[in-house]
Amino acid sequence: MKCKSDLRGAIIARRNTLSPNEVAQKSAAACDYLVSLPEFAAARVVMFFITFGTETDTLPMVGRAIAAGKRVLAPRADRDAKSLVPCEITNPETDLAPGAYGIREPGPRCLAVRLEAIDVVLVPAAVWAEDGYRVGYGAGYYDRFLKSVPRACRIGLGLEVQVVPQVPRGEHDLPVDILVTEAGVRKFSHRSANHG
């Protein structure tokens, strides 16, 4: 099996061969699967990641969630603490601006939200495995964040070109509960009923 950095580079390169139109079409299909999930429908507070590069386009999904009356959060990176701060957004057009690493994030007017309030976290990755484990972008922000929200349902969101049979993983890596791509929904039973 390739090491994480080699796998990450290979899959991002593969994802980057998609045209903007292909990414948009595949993202729209993934969005339809996402909003049909009972776990997403029941969620009152949802934290989205904000698209960077050729990732699944989350902005239309953010708009749909806000229109559906959900409280929508996006992460602000605290580079000193190497942590993510979930902040509420109500209008992606005005609330988001380029921040750490050039990724759009909530501006200073957007207030942080208590971690316990979060029902669903949408999780990005460079690479997804068939069993719900992931290879991130190397900084560990989401691995740390997911440990801080044990109650939240973890939904991975990606494109099918990012999915491989398995990825290298360490003892601290957390899988998602559900993986959504344009090809459909994969649900996993990694966690017991108490979300432990």
**Mean model confidence by pLDDT:** 92
Stated plainly, the CATH topology is called Rossmann fold
Q: Calculate Rg over CA atoms.
A: 16 Å
Are there runs of 5+ residues with pLDDT below 50, and where?
Answer: none
Number of helices: 6
Mass-distribution shape: globular
Distance between the termini: 29 Å
**What is the percentage of strand-forming residues?**
15-25%
Strand tally? 12
Q: Major beta sheet, specifics?
A: 7 strands, mixed
The fourth-level CATH homologous superfamily is NagB/RpiA/CoA transferase-like
CATH first level: Alpha Beta
Percentage of residues assigned to helices: 25-40%
Q: What is the topology, as strand order, of the major beta sheet?
A: 3-2-1-6-9-11-12
Structural class: alpha/beta
What would you say the CATH architecture is?
A: 3-Layer(aba) Sandwich
Task: Provide the succession of SSEs.
Answer: HHHEHEEHEEEEEHEEEE
Tally of individual domains: 1
Please give a structural write-up.
By secondary structure, this protein is an alpha/beta fold. It has one domain (4-187): 3-Layer(aba) Sandwich (Rossmann fold). It has 6 helices and 12 strands. The chain has helices at 4-15, 20-36, 38-42, 59-67, 92-95, 141-148; strands at 45-47, 71-78, 83-89, 96-98, 104-106, 120-123, 127-129, 134-135, 153-157, 163-164, 178-181, 184-187. Strands 3-2-1-6-9-11-12 form a 7-stranded mixed sheet, with helices on both faces. A hairpin with a 4-residue loop joins strand 7 and strand 8 (134-135). The mean pLDDT is 92.
